[in-house]
Specification:
Helices cover 54% and strands 10% of the residues. The chain is of the alpha+beta class. It has one domain: 3-Layer(aba) Sandwich (Glutaredoxin), CATH 3.40.30. The N and C termini lie far apart (60 Å). The relative contact order is 0.15. The mean pLDDT is 94.
Length: 224
Amino acid sequence: MTARTLHFYFDYLSPYAYFSWRALQPLCQRYQLQLIPHPVVFGKLLDHWGQLGPAEVVPKKAALYRYCYRYAALNGFEFNPPHCHPFNPLPALRLSLAEVSGDKQTALISAIFDAGWSQGADLSCVETLGKLAHNTGLGSATVLDSITRQDTKDLLHRETEQAIAQGVFGVPTFMIDDELFWGHDQLAHIELYLQGKDPLDPDKVDRMLNRARGIDRKAVRDSQ
């Protein structure tokens, strides 16, 4: 019997992606899922769909951090975010590609997430990434050289474009079968889906999506 697959789309910029990653491997073990991580460029998703990131909206960024500190305290782990946020995630994302990290991909992603969001490491620092790669059994000099090559840059670009083509608009995003789940708070819904207990009625969703728009934001702004 072929194992079902869970695709996980993430960017290290998101603490919610870190929280989800901590829970994903036990979940995949419980339901015998093959976990396939997809590093993607969150900024490119935002640009494509015309959104702002949480860190770009001042009160939203503050609310995000309040949630994160509460969540970590309630779940018994340290939340110590990177010194600068947002930071440049591209070196870490390239390093995390399956074509670069190979069979160490899962261990490396865990190490990078933990270093950034529980130990306050600068995930844009190539030297830091080299140490993490070395500690997970990768030849740091080799992999650090690979993330500067154009073919590696192209791989990350392709991962991001393929995610957009799948309808991915934010991180973390999870894909099982053809069902997309977005956000850390979807883990309980994912379990219901895997148990065959999903309460969702797709027809109701389709009817809602086909309703006519009553007004647009621009029209409201222009009428003030």
